[in-house]
Specification:
By secondary structure, this protein is mainly β. The chain is built from no helices and eleven strands. Strands 2, 4, 5, 6, 9, 10 and 11 form a seven-stranded mixed beta sheet that branches. A hairpin with a 6-residue loop joins strand 9 (about 90-100) and strand 10.
């Protein structure tokens, strides 16, 4: 069974920084895209940033220039460095990955349990 475990959420003041980390574990053959999504209270889950296996990245317009996604393919981890945080960044952040489990030829979409980021004004 493949799992994603996030860490690094918490409370920070406006303008502060946080770093989220996510580690994939289990019997994994390969991982294609990895990324971060977030869901604020009363809103739909939205894409924050993604990165593919070849290192290309994509960001939501609202976080461009403030957030940076990075990935360690050898360790099956993905991180999100969040700078210049704003109250509107407050949300539960979820790690997501497209994983090919060992002995499988099909991508499996896996989600982490979520980590809360709260930005106070």
């Amino acid at each position: 069974q493949v799992q994603l475990v996030e860490s690094g959420g918490g409370l920070v003041q406006t303008g502060g920084s946080l770093r989220l980390s996510c580690a994939a574990s289990g019997r994994i053959f390969s991982i294609n895209a990895m990324g971060w999504y977030r869901q604020a209270p009363g809103k739909q889950r939205e894409l924050v940033a993604t990165t593919t296996g070849d290192g290309s990245t994509d960001y939501a317009d609202s976080v461009k220039g403030r957030f940076t996604i990075s990935r360690d393919n050898a360790r099956n981890t993905v991180s999100l460095q969040m700078n210049s945080l704003k109250p509107e960044d407050t949300a539960v952040y979820y790690c997501n990955a497209a994983v090919v489990p060992a002995l499988s030829f099909t991508y499996l979409e896996v989600w982490g349990q979520g980590t809360l980021v709260t930005v106070s004004s």
